[in-house]
Amino acid sequence: MSTQSTPAKEILVFLTPTSAQVDATKLVECGYSCTAVSTIPDVFDALRSDSYSLAITTRPEIDLLHNIRSIPFVNLEIFFHAEPSSDGPLFTSKRSTATERRSHGEIFLRKFNH
Questions:
Q1: Is the separation of the CB atoms in 34 and 28 below 8 Å?
Q2: Least buried of 1, 14, 34, 102, by fewest C-beta within 10 Å?
Q3: CB-based contact 11:112 (threshold 8 Å)
Q4: Do 44 and 68 form a contact (C-beta atoms < 8 A)?
């Protein structure tokens, strides 16, 4: 009997450039394979491939993703909310203390382990 395993597909992170890079870096540090994109042409090209099993984005972009390809997604706004920054929304925890921010970040990462 052969026990071939299917290689895990990547996670697609579709956020503003800074947020996408920060989140993708953290996911890679936790052992996940992912790609960060920040433009509509890049997300369109990425989703036309069959390389991604999950997308991380924000509420306004969910319909866009589903119009390109039906793919499960994580709405980052459930864990964080946006505050304005120079290159678009900067995501911070809903809570103000460092311990609470760490807790929300850990909950966010645990979503990928289940």
A1: yes
A2: 1
A3: yes
A4: yes
| pLDDT of 14 over the 80 cut | yes
Residue 41 domain flag: yes
Distance CA 85, CA 16 (A): 10
Tell me the pLDDT of the chain averaged across its residues: 77
**DSSP letters for 30-81:** TT--EEEE-SHHHHHHHHHSS-EEEEEE-HHHHHHHHHH----EEEGGGTEE
User: Is residue 65 in a domain?
Assistant: yes
Q: What confidence category does residue 98 fall into, taking pLDDT thresholds of 50, 70 and 90? A: very low
Q: How many domains does the chain have?
A: 1
Average pLDDT, integer, range 54-65: 91
Domain membership of residue 4 (yes or no) is: no
Instruction: Give the CATH number, domain containing residue 52.
Output: 3.40.50
Secondary element (H or E) of residue 105: helix 98-110
